[in-house]
Amino acid sequence: MARRKTAAKENHERWLVSYADLVTLLFAFFVVMFASTQTDHARAKQISEGVEKALKNGTTPPKIAAILGGTVEDKGRGNAMLRGPAFPNPPADKPEEPLKDLDAAAALLRSRLQKEIAQGAVDIRVEERGVIIGLNSAVFFSTGGDTIDPGVYPTLKEVGSILNRLPNALRLEGHTDSVPINTPRFPSNWELSAARSIAMLRLFNERFSVARERMAIVGYADTASIDSNESETGRRRNRRVDIVIVSDLGLRAEARPSH
Protein backbone atom coordinates (compact mmCIF):
# COMPACT_ATOMS: atom_id res chain seq x y z
CA MET A 1 0.00 0.00 0.00
CA ALA A 2 1.45 3.33 -1.08
CA ARG A 3 2.38 5.80 1.66
CA ARG A 4 0.19 8.86 1.57
CA LYS A 5 2.09 12.04 1.01
CA THR A 6 1.49 14.65 3.64
CA ALA A 7 1.51 18.31 2.62
CA ALA A 8 4.44 20.28 3.95
CA LYS A 9 3.40 22.47 6.82
CA GLU A 10 3.43 26.12 5.78
CA ASN A 11 5.69 28.34 7.89
CA HIS A 12 3.61 31.31 8.97
CA GLU A 13 6.48 32.94 10.87
CA ARG A 14 8.77 33.80 7.94
CA TRP A 15 7.76 37.43 8.32
CA LEU A 16 9.76 37.50 11.56
CA VAL A 17 13.00 37.34 9.54
CA SER A 18 12.15 40.47 7.58
CA TYR A 19 10.83 42.11 10.70
CA ALA A 20 14.04 41.37 12.58
CA ASP A 21 16.10 42.85 9.74
CA LEU A 22 13.92 45.97 9.76
CA VAL A 23 14.32 46.37 13.52
CA THR A 24 18.06 45.94 13.20
CA LEU A 25 18.26 48.59 10.50
CA LEU A 26 16.10 50.98 12.49
CA PHE A 27 18.33 50.43 15.51
CA ALA A 28 21.41 51.16 13.42
CA PHE A 29 19.76 54.29 11.97
CA PHE A 30 18.91 55.75 15.36
CA VAL A 31 22.38 54.99 16.70
CA VAL A 32 23.85 56.88 13.75
CA MET A 33 21.47 59.79 14.32
CA PHE A 34 22.35 59.87 18.01
CA ALA A 35 26.07 59.77 17.33
CA SER A 36 25.79 62.53 14.75
CA THR A 37 24.40 64.93 17.36
CA GLN A 38 27.32 64.45 19.71
CA THR A 39 30.11 67.04 19.74
CA ASP A 40 32.34 64.53 21.51
CA HIS A 41 33.84 62.68 18.55
CA ALA A 42 35.69 60.23 20.79
CA ARG A 43 32.42 59.18 22.39
CA ALA A 44 30.78 58.85 18.97
CA LYS A 45 33.63 56.63 17.87
CA GLN A 46 33.18 54.39 20.93
CA ILE A 47 29.45 54.08 20.22
CA SER A 48 30.10 53.25 16.58
CA GLU A 49 32.69 50.61 17.41
CA GLY A 50 30.38 49.04 20.00
CA VAL A 51 27.48 48.82 17.57
CA GLU A 52 29.72 47.47 14.83
CA LYS A 53 31.03 44.75 17.12
CA ALA A 54 27.54 43.78 18.19
CA LEU A 55 26.22 43.67 14.65
CA LYS A 56 29.12 41.58 13.40
CA ASN A 57 27.95 38.84 15.74
CA GLY A 58 24.38 39.04 14.40
CA THR A 59 22.74 38.74 11.02
CA THR A 60 23.23 42.28 9.69
CA PRO A 61 25.07 42.37 6.37
CA PRO A 62 28.71 43.50 6.59
CA LYS A 63 27.97 46.60 4.49
CA ILE A 64 25.77 47.99 7.24
CA ALA A 65 28.51 47.41 9.79
CA ALA A 66 30.98 49.17 7.51
CA ILE A 67 28.65 52.15 7.24
CA LEU A 68 28.46 52.35 11.01
CA GLY A 69 32.24 52.12 11.23
CA GLY A 70 32.92 55.67 10.00
CA THR A 71 35.16 57.59 12.36
CA VAL A 72 37.06 60.86 12.42
CA GLU A 73 40.17 59.15 11.13
CA ASP A 74 38.39 57.03 8.48
CA LYS A 75 38.26 59.32 5.44
CA GLY A 76 37.26 56.77 2.82
CA ARG A 77 34.27 54.96 4.31
CA GLY A 78 31.66 55.08 6.96
CA ASN A 79 28.97 57.55 7.88
CA ALA A 80 30.26 61.07 7.22
CA MET A 81 28.10 62.39 10.04
CA LEU A 82 30.16 60.43 12.57
CA ARG A 83 33.12 62.57 11.57
CA GLY A 84 31.37 65.47 13.19
CA PRO A 85 28.54 67.79 12.16
CA ALA A 86 29.05 69.45 8.81
CA PHE A 87 29.22 73.21 8.99
CA PRO A 88 29.20 75.36 5.87
CA ASN A 89 32.28 77.39 5.14
CA PRO A 90 32.07 80.76 6.90
CA PRO A 91 31.11 83.53 4.54
CA ALA A 92 33.99 85.63 3.29
CA ASP A 93 34.42 88.94 5.03
CA LYS A 94 32.69 91.69 3.15
CA PRO A 95 35.03 94.49 2.11
CA GLU A 96 34.59 97.48 4.35
CA GLU A 97 33.29 100.72 2.97
CA PRO A 98 35.92 103.27 1.89
CA LEU A 99 36.56 106.07 4.36
CA LYS A 100 35.44 109.47 3.13
CA ASP A 101 38.45 111.46 4.37
CA LEU A 102 41.48 111.49 6.65
CA ASP A 103 39.56 112.92 9.59
CA ALA A 104 37.30 109.87 9.50
CA ALA A 105 40.38 107.64 9.31
CA ALA A 106 41.99 109.33 12.32
CA ALA A 107 38.79 109.02 14.34
CA LEU A 108 38.46 105.33 13.47
CA LEU A 109 42.10 104.66 14.34
CA ARG A 110 41.67 106.31 17.74
CA SER A 111 38.51 104.30 18.35
CA ARG A 112 39.96 100.89 17.41
CA LEU A 113 43.35 101.42 19.05
CA GLN A 114 42.23 102.91 22.35
CA LYS A 115 44.07 100.30 24.39
CA GLU A 116 47.33 100.66 22.48
CA ILE A 117 47.15 104.44 22.65
CA ALA A 118 46.53 104.35 26.42
CA GLN A 119 49.56 102.05 26.86
CA GLY A 120 51.82 104.33 24.82
CA ALA A 121 52.35 101.75 22.07
CA VAL A 122 50.63 103.83 19.39
CA ASP A 123 50.26 107.56 18.86
CA ILE A 124 47.84 109.14 16.38
CA ARG A 125 48.57 112.66 15.14
CA VAL A 126 47.02 114.79 12.41
CA GLU A 127 49.26 117.22 10.56
CA GLU A 128 49.07 119.11 7.29
CA ARG A 129 50.95 116.35 5.52
CA GLY A 130 48.49 113.72 6.68
CA VAL A 131 47.60 111.33 9.50
CA ILE A 132 50.64 109.99 11.35
CA ILE A 133 50.39 106.63 13.10
CA GLY A 134 53.38 106.47 15.44
CA LEU A 135 54.46 102.94 16.40
CA ASN A 136 56.68 102.68 19.48
CA SER A 137 59.76 100.68 18.47
CA ALA A 138 60.15 99.28 21.99
CA VAL A 139 56.78 97.57 21.58
CA PHE A 140 56.86 96.61 17.91
CA PHE A 141 60.51 95.59 17.38
CA SER A 142 63.20 93.55 19.03
CA THR A 143 65.82 95.62 20.85
CA GLY A 144 68.36 96.96 18.39
CA GLY A 145 66.81 94.93 15.55
CA ASP A 146 64.27 95.07 12.75
CA THR A 147 62.27 91.95 13.62
CA ILE A 148 58.60 92.75 14.25
CA ASP A 149 57.13 91.08 17.33
CA PRO A 150 54.34 88.66 16.23
CA GLY A 151 52.43 89.68 19.35
CA VAL A 152 51.61 93.05 17.73
CA TYR A 153 50.19 91.54 14.53
CA PRO A 154 46.56 92.05 15.70
CA THR A 155 47.26 95.76 16.18
CA LEU A 156 48.91 96.03 12.76
CA LYS A 157 46.00 94.13 11.22
CA GLU A 158 43.64 96.82 12.51
CA VAL A 159 45.90 99.49 11.04
CA GLY A 160 46.15 97.63 7.74
CA SER A 161 42.38 97.25 7.45
CA ILE A 162 41.98 101.02 7.76
CA LEU A 163 44.82 101.73 5.33
CA ASN A 164 43.04 99.53 2.78
CA ARG A 165 39.93 101.68 3.04
CA LEU A 166 41.82 104.71 1.78
CA PRO A 167 43.39 105.49 -1.61
CA ASN A 168 46.13 107.72 -0.18
CA ALA A 169 49.85 107.23 -0.61
CA LEU A 170 51.69 105.92 2.44
CA ARG A 171 55.12 106.70 3.86
CA LEU A 172 56.81 104.45 6.40
CA GLU A 173 59.37 106.53 8.27
CA GLY A 174 61.92 104.96 10.60
CA HIS A 175 63.34 106.95 13.54
CA THR A 176 65.86 106.23 16.27
CA ASP A 177 67.24 108.04 19.28
CA SER A 178 70.71 109.59 19.32
CA VAL A 179 72.47 106.66 21.00
CA PRO A 180 74.92 105.25 18.40
CA ILE A 181 74.65 101.68 17.18
CA ASN A 182 77.42 99.71 15.52
CA THR A 183 76.72 96.07 14.73
CA PRO A 184 77.59 93.88 11.73
CA ARG A 185 74.03 94.31 10.46
CA PHE A 186 73.53 97.97 11.41
CA PRO A 187 76.70 100.06 11.25
CA SER A 188 74.69 103.13 12.26
CA ASN A 189 71.21 104.34 13.12
CA TRP A 190 70.61 105.15 9.46
CA GLU A 191 70.60 101.46 8.51
CA LEU A 192 68.50 100.55 11.55
CA SER A 193 65.81 103.15 10.89
CA ALA A 194 65.60 102.23 7.19
CA ALA A 195 65.51 98.49 7.95
CA ARG A 196 62.60 98.92 10.35
CA SER A 197 60.68 100.88 7.72
CA ILE A 198 61.30 98.13 5.18
CA ALA A 199 60.24 95.41 7.63
CA MET A 200 56.98 97.24 8.29
CA LEU A 201 56.38 97.76 4.56
CA ARG A 202 56.89 94.08 3.81
CA LEU A 203 54.54 93.03 6.60
CA PHE A 204 51.73 95.32 5.46
CA ASN A 205 52.14 94.18 1.88
CA GLU A 206 52.60 90.44 2.38
CA ARG A 207 50.37 89.83 5.40
CA PHE A 208 47.71 92.54 5.21
CA SER A 209 47.54 93.08 1.42
CA VAL A 210 48.40 96.78 1.39
CA ALA A 211 49.47 97.55 -2.18
CA ARG A 212 53.22 98.09 -2.40
CA GLU A 213 52.72 100.75 -5.07
CA ARG A 214 51.20 102.98 -2.40
CA MET A 215 54.12 102.74 0.01
CA ALA A 216 57.53 104.37 0.31
CA ILE A 217 60.14 104.05 3.04
CA VAL A 218 62.36 106.65 4.70
CA GLY A 219 65.12 106.24 7.27
CA TYR A 220 65.65 109.36 9.38
CA ALA A 221 67.92 107.92 12.09
CA ASP A 222 67.90 110.54 14.89
CA THR A 223 67.47 113.62 12.68
CA ALA A 224 63.71 114.08 13.16
CA SER A 225 63.17 113.73 16.90
CA ILE A 226 59.84 114.55 18.51
CA ASP A 227 61.29 114.72 22.03
CA SER A 228 64.58 115.40 23.78
CA ASN A 229 67.27 112.72 23.65
CA GLU A 230 68.52 113.88 27.06
CA SER A 231 66.12 111.62 28.96
CA GLU A 232 65.12 107.98 28.65
CA THR A 233 61.49 109.00 28.28
CA GLY A 234 62.34 111.26 25.36
CA ARG A 235 64.57 108.67 23.71
CA ARG A 236 61.80 106.10 23.99
CA ARG A 237 59.40 108.40 22.16
CA ASN A 238 61.97 109.07 19.46
CA ARG A 239 62.45 105.37 18.69
CA ARG A 240 59.49 104.77 16.40
CA VAL A 241 58.18 104.01 12.95
CA ASP A 242 55.67 106.54 11.66
CA ILE A 243 53.08 105.43 9.12
CA VAL A 244 52.00 108.56 7.29
CA ILE A 245 48.72 108.54 5.40
CA VAL A 246 49.69 111.30 3.04
CA SER A 247 47.19 114.13 2.48
CA ASP A 248 46.65 115.94 -0.82
CA LEU A 249 48.88 118.72 0.45
CA GLY A 250 51.62 116.31 1.45
CA LEU A 251 51.32 114.42 -1.82
CA ARG A 252 52.52 117.47 -3.76
CA ALA A 253 56.02 116.91 -2.44
CA GLU A 254 56.00 113.14 -3.03
CA ALA A 255 57.72 111.45 -5.96
CA ARG A 256 55.23 109.93 -8.41
CA PRO A 257 55.62 107.24 -11.07
CA SER A 258 56.36 108.68 -14.50
CA HIS A 259 53.94 106.27 -16.20
- Please trace the helix and strand order, writing H or E for each element: HHHHHEEHHEHEHEH
Counted beta strands: 5
Number of domains: 2
Query: Would you tell me which CATH topology of the largest domain applies?
Result: 60s Ribosomal Protein L30, Chain: A
What does this structure look like?
By secondary structure, the chain is α+β, with helices and mostly antiparallel strands. It folds into two domains: 15-83; 102-251, 60s Ribosomal Protein L30, Chain: A, CATH 3.30.1330.60. Helix content is 41%, strand content 12%. The chain has helices at residues 15-36, 41-56, 62-68, 102-112, 114-118, 137-140, 153-163, 189-206, 232-238, 248-251, and strands at 122-127, 130-136, 170-175, 215-219, 240-246. A five-stranded mixed sheet has the order 1-2-5-3-4. Helix 2 packs antiparallel against helix 3 and helix 4 runs antiparallel to helix 7 (153-163). Residues 67-88 have low confidence and may be disordered.
